[in-house]
Amino acid sequence: MGQRDQPAAHRSRQAVTVHAKPVPGQTNLVNASLALQAGTVGTPWGSTTNARLSAQWIHALTNAIPISGEGQLDCSQAATKWASAGGLRLNVRLATSPGGGSPRDDASWAAWAGLEPYVLDWDVRATNALSHRLAVREVACSGNWRAPGLVISNLVARIDREQVTANAALDVASRALKLGFSSNLDPHRLAPLLPDGSERWLAEFACEQPPELNGEIALTLPAWTNRPPGWEAELRPTVRLQGGFDFKHGGTFKGVALSAARSHLVYSNGLLRLPDLTITRPEGRLDAAIELNGGTKEYAARIQSGIDVLALRPALDPGQRGVFDLFTFTLPPALQAEVRGCWQQADRIGIRGSVAITNFTFRGESISSLQTAFQYTNRFAQITAPRVQCGSRQASADALGVDLVTQRIHLTNGFSTVEPMVVARAIGEQIVSAIEPYRFDEPPVARVHGIIPLRGEEDADLHFDLAGGRFHWWRFNVPQITGHVHWRGQHLSLSDVRVGFYGGQATGAAVFDFHPGAATDYQFTLTTTNTEAESLIADLFRSTNILKGSLSGSLFVTNANTSAIETWRGFGNLQLQNGLIWDIPVFGMFSDVLNGLAPGLGSSRASAGTCTFGITNGVIRSNDLDIRSTAVRLQYRGTVDFESRVKARVEAGLLRDVWLVGPVVSTVFWPVTKVFEYKVSGTLGEPKAEPVFLIPKVMLLPFQMPFHPLRTLKGLLPEDSGTSRTNNPALISPKQN
Are 120 and 142 in contact (CB under 8 A)? Predict the structure, then answer.
């Protein structure tokens, strides 16, 4: 037979052999064969090299379309615009359908209608194939056509030790396609075939051994003729998927290591579901049911987790990792949660659930357990009924609201028996510095509400109602205290403070103003009644003086600064009843004189003492300090500072308050009273006295003779140098102590 060139194809070095002969006993049938060898063949659909084609078929004498036949194609190189192969072998077998007849008159079949009368079987094998940068060592499959069904079976694609197996069935009449597959292929190899952005996502994933994948896909293809515009959108709702994956040997995603992961997969109507996702790590397991909507970009998940949430830290953005740095866990949290949101709109995320944690730390503070329910939406987290246990102590609240927009925590009805410094350190350094001077032997009962700032302290507005046992501040030690603390911005105030105060009762209030980078300004008031002077003075001055009596009074410090106690300004008053004060040198400087007049006269109790005073720059001034006893009435006018330095004038009225005869005696002794008027300097512990009036001692003899005519006059008056029974330390500020 002859041959002629075809412009649609390029051929070189071809050898073509064609045979045709009648079929014995069938005069209208022809048995034909074809053998073709070509170095290079090029067509609009592809090209080959070293192609060898052999075919045998039967066709009617009047119609060259085969009725039956078979053929084989071998080539060294084959390439199309979709793929290429280093070697290709194709075997095809053709027969007429048992039903026979002409193609149906159905335009919707398009080109498939021409194949309806036939039965086709084939198998194909390609080696060293490449498609969209996906290199495959070997691809093999077989298939058949039985109108209206096209079947592809036993498809195997091998890449090194990995392979994909698949089968497919297409109903041409309904355009329904079903595809089954299984794979142990490294997902990174599929990156070139996936949509834009998937490759970046896959780059975050790594595994030593590929996962196992399997599934069945069903979909309806678009019309064979007149394919509508936007057919991809029309195709998507028809896709159905059922399958699963199994990462038996684990891997890492964004730096988070997984021991294993598996789940079934279900996809339909644009909704992808992972109904039984299980992720395993060495410390525990996470179980989840997840839904992803490809159309709306919405997602939903139910999660039950026993894995360490701190392991997720590498997967977060740097700005999101800070909260994880606040925690350490001995055991992973037990978490149950439901999550909903849209991955294109982070603000739409919503979370609710519960968590239980044991033996962990927050900002370095050890916590035995925590249980709470929580809810998050619109960048606001609602923590409901949190319960915290710290050893035998506990803390709870009705609710905590965490506003990430304003960076505030709203606390409702908090209750705590936890050590205050534990809570303070958990909140932040600003609270630590505010309450550090105040110490309880046992943690107080605290009721708390208000606003805790997540950054800085300007937005703080937190209220504490405290009731505690033994309490210490500066040199004060009291058996119990109650009060209200209000922390607002740079200010801390104490109000309604009630104290068991050295056998009596005291009330008070204080305000502190914390300037960043500067010392603290403060104000306070203290009012006390029936305070035992002995124990108060013992703590305040740390002395061993024998001091007795009951004190009442008020102190108002209107301006002060923690930089120095000398900054104090204020005023106050004191009342003393039944006091034994002569062991204080500044008061007892006349005791020897009085005892010289009559034994024990200089050691009698002061029936009353009163004064008002003012404080300026740390110096206390009083112009009306009045101390009364049977033996003497002392009147002081002057100053004493917080270093115990004295600058005063004192006048002693002898026997002025003796019952009935006191006024007469004091009048008679008036010259002696003037003798007992002194200027006092030095310190409270070592006073120095200088007489205001220089009166010869001999003038006092007439007044002494009636009492002790034979007593020596030596030591009758105090020396200028003064004497000291006990060296009382100076008062110093709380910050200096």
Answer: no
**Whole-number average pLDDT of the chain:** 81
Query: Is the bond into 599 cis (omega within 30 degrees of 0)?
Result: no
| Greatest alpha-carbon span in the chain | 178
Q: Are 192 and 132 in contact (CB under 8 A)?
A: yes
pLDDT digits (tens, 9 = 90+) for 243-285: 999 999 888 888 888 999 999 999 988 889 999 999 999 989 9
Chain centroid, CA 435 distance in Å: 24
How many angstroms separate the CA atoms of 547 and 400, rounded? Answer: 52
State phi, psi for 332 to the nearest 5 degrees.
-65, 150
Cα torsion through 405, 357, 431, 391, rounded to 10: 160
Could you give the count of Cα atoms lying within 13 Å of 368 in the half-sphere of its Cβ? 10
For the chain, percent of residues with pLDDT exceeding 70: 80
Of the pLDDT bands very low, low, confident and very high (cuts 50, 70, 90), residue 166 is very high
List, in order, residues 6 or more apart from 546 with CB less than 8 Å away.
Answer: 534, 580, 583
* Closest by Cα among 547, 535, 549, 602 to 579: 549
In angstroms, rounded to a whole number, what is the distance separating the alpha carbons of residues 573 and 587?
Answer: 18
Give me the sign of the Cα torsion angle 429, 433, 439, 445: negative
Instruction: Give the whole-angstrom CA distance, residue 634 versus residue 72.
Output: 134
Q: What angle do CA 84, 87, 89 make, to 5 degrees?
A: 110
pTM of the model: 0.68
Alpha carbons 611 and 634: distance in angstroms, whole number = 12
CA 360 to each of CA 284, 388, 607: distance values in angstroms, whole numbers, following the listed order: 16, 11, 61
The SS3 call for residue 96 is strand
Residue 26: per-residue pLDDT? 82
| Residue corresponding to tokens 């199994």 | 246
Which residue matches tokens 């095809």? 92
Number of residues assigned to the chain: 737
**Per-residue pLDDT, 185:** 86
Instruction: Tell me how far CA of residue 117 lies from CA of 108, 109, 168, 596, in angstroms.
Output: 16, 13, 22, 147
* DSSP β-bridge partners for residue 265: 243
List, in order, residues 6 or more apart from 161 with CB less than 8 Å away: none
Task: Determine the Cα–Cα distance for residues 237 and 409; give it in Å rounded to an integer.
Answer: 45
Query: Each residue of 570-619: pLDDT tens digit?
Result: 999 989 888 766 666 666 666 665 565 556 655 666 677 899 999 998 89
If residue 425 lies in a helix (H) or strand (E), which one and from where to where?
Answer: helix 420-427
The b-or-e profile of 151-185 (16+ CB within 10 A means b, else e) is ebeebebbbeebbbbbbbbbebeebebebbbbbbb
Q: In sequence order, what are the beta bridge partners of 461?
A: 451, 488
Q: Give the E-state strand segments of 655-735 in sequence order.
A: 677-682, 687-691
Instruction: Read off the pLDDT of each residue in 74-97 and give the average, rounded to a whole number.
Output: 88
Q: What is the mean pLDDT of residues 170-198?
A: 83
- 510 has a pLDDT exceeding 60: yes
Cβ atoms of 371 and 362 closer than 8 Å: no
326 by Cβ neighbours in 10 Å (0-12 / 13-18 / 19+) ranks as exposed
Q: Report which secondary-structure segment, H or E, holds 52.
A: strand 46-60
The residue type of 441 is D
Distance CA 676, CA 697 (A): 12
* Of 18, 59, 56, 20, residue with least CA distance to 37: 18
Of 338, 343, 337, the residue nearest 293 (C-alpha) = 343
Residue 339: predicted pLDDT: 93
Please check whether residue 269 is in contact with residue 296, taking contact to mean a CB–CB distance below 8 angstroms. no
Q: Which of the four pLDDT bands, split at 50, 70 and 90, describes residue 704?
A: very low
